Protein 1
Amino acid sequence: MERSAMDNSLTSGEAAALDISEADTAAEFAGSGPSLYAGAPSSVSFNKLRKRLIRNTRQAIEDFSMLATVRAAEDGKPRRWLVALSGGKDSYGLLALLLDLKWRGLLPVDLVACNLDQGQPGFPKHILPDYLDSHGITHRIEYQDTYSIVTDKLPETATYCALCSRLRRGHLYRVAREEGCEALVLGHHRDDILETFFLNLFHGGRLASMPPKLVNDEGDVMVLRPLAYCAEDDLQKFSDAMEFPIIPCNLCGSQDGLQRNAMKAMLSDIEKRMPGRKDTMIRAMGHARPSHLLDPNLFDFAGLSLTDPKSTN
């Protein structure tokens, strides 16, 4: 696999930790790994899927210098990332893949899984702590009734996602600080990034999406999205095979007609008619040419001039 240059701020040990031989085969994954892989299938197809997801996750960590966010350990304290765990397939997959990388010595940070119980009626409070305890995973369950705030401030016909997300993110930043975590890690994947790009293109009039790495407004917590290269279909297959105890979202997930659903349907149709287009699109987002766009703030069009005045004759 072709590898991009590592950020200069990484130590040689951290750079080496991200390197894994392509000679590894799917068969070597069978029957090994962290505790939550104990009941995973031993089939060749699953092991190939697991390897592909690990490779894509590792590549995103490398390409976007996610380990460069890691501060030097102070007073012997370990480096820590807070992994947001909603109970959906993507966040379960994120946690499993990061634990896998850590188990292989490829991720030199401690992981703390965090679920924000938002007070939704009927939320099965026992599922996540029981699952995490059974696998010895360090975690924190934080209760904050954002459900009542969202439903009180917005009419039933409104889309709850934006307000819900802002409230949730604020609490997660606070928990990250309290747990001594320098980064909040989210489970957004390739398809989420593409859908956001087209939402901004069609409805916002701008070229923008979810960044794989950013700093919060306060400047004290990094936000990371290591699944940026992972396909949603792969994460769904991974979740099904791993038999994660999925908890459905009955708030925004129950509302029809969301603009994001329209983007998802559009991308699905494009992929069906032209297989491989999603991968092409995500590569395109990493190969922008400001001189071939229309933003004078990104490229100095006024500064363009002919090198030889005679060339106009």
Note: The chain has ten helices and six strands.
Protein 2
Amino acid sequence: MKIIDAHVHFSKINSFQHTADNISRLSYTYDGLLKEWKENNVVGTVAMGVTETEPNAFPDYKSNTPMGLNLANSIPSTMGYCPGINPYKLEEENLQSLEREIQKPNVVGMKIYLGYYPFYAYDKVYSPVYRLAAKYNLPVVFHTGDTYSEKGLLKYSHPLTLDEVAVFNRDVTFVMAHFGDPWVLDGAEVVYKNKNMYADLSGLIVGTNQEINRHKKTRFLQHLLHALDYCDHYEKLMFGTDWPLISVEAYISFIKEIIPKEYHQAVFHDTALKVFPRLQELLSE
């Protein structure tokens, strides 16, 4: 089966490198990513743009909008990406730069880092981003749930805060990254209720197969399965690893176990092409 990884990182963020070296034990490099793709039949990915102006600064209030990808001098031809939004950098000049950036063919959406920056999804600061998303038919991906930094503020990343945005921006497709984990039941309700809200299943576990096996023996798995059943829309969910937080192979095996087999084609491939129509164009070239 062909795989699309709908959530990866490809930026020089110190915490990502530390995780790859010490927790997930993988090669956080251009070649390391290509090797994992080849071994697991990954035909395309969506990378989330994010930058830091100095080591360990993420979430970096000084980073300019749009935040891009800078792990290597070039990016793989089958990698679409979502420029990152810094709400402190949304002056007219930044918005003009963002609009120029999102017209590039490899840009498949935009990414808002809720919790990392102290603004709710419905804050008016993001209104220009939603207008651009509607104008160019691009989805907006939200970080939701736990933040991979102690500097994050969790109240801003709760998945229920996305409901208002979905209701008042029906002309925009939204993606709830990480399914709102640990508030996955709340996240499931927002996806279930709103036709324009999707979710990716990235970042639910960080580490190696050993960490996956440990989680499978806890109530974490029961909690997650309850939310997936409640959502009752497997066709609105997408596979994503949050690479380099876990290896592609390990995470594919885990997600295959928790998603009914009849929905594997949708979750691992088809839904991503529906949510990110430019990715389909990119992969057909």
Note: The chain has eleven helices and nine strands.
Protein 3
Amino acid sequence: MSNLLPLLSWLAFPVYVWQGLAVRRRTPRLLPPEGPVLHTLTGHGEPVRLLVLGDSSAASVGIVDSEKGLAARLAHALNRDTGRPVAWRAAGFNSATSGQLRDHVVPNMAAEPWTHIVLSVGTNDTKNFHSVSRFKKEFGGLLYAVRAKWPRARIVWSPVIDMTRVPALPALLGRILEVRAAAINRMGTRLCLERGALPAARLPVVDPAAGFSHDGFHASVAGYQAWADHLLPLIALDEAGAAASAAMAQSDGERDRGQRQ
């Protein structure tokens, strides 16, 4: 039954358009924060080189200081825990989808020796009502492109959060998009496991009032910190731990599927 839900959600497309246009009208379009998008933290030993690539959340839209965003918070945590130097870059773009990153961003990035890459992508594919087959082609191609350009990097994908917990979305629209998000997350997890990337578990949204910015869609300072804390163990894991984490993400996906049957 869960495999039919994304198809059945097309019956709600008029509601999606009607409520989506209203959300777009009343939601302010925020710019990326002030501050650096790349920086190096000093330390001793072999450097960690961290790239956070993706949509507006990769750029830490929703806050005013990039040093409080996802890439910087991950970098500072790695620097604190390992004592190693950490070079980080946030390469995020408003409204970016998997296909746009695959076709226009990755080909134009320098092949710098990133050791760890976090992909924040899938939310715009979800809210743009991209089909699962389209996401499979575009996100799958993105994984291939990233792996080909940075063959030695650990690649971590952060799936789409529970759309029913996003304050900017009316309840019905959130439920419609959650059906799409769950299907995209299942496909994304499968593609990661097939193509040499590590899928994270979904970021739990414990307190939407604290975790989201004033636009009700992007993360707040507290939200980005929670996100970095959530992803940090996957960045720092050894290979055995990485395999265990991937199995856990796959199990989470199967549990979500079972709950919807």
Note: The mean pLDDT is 88.
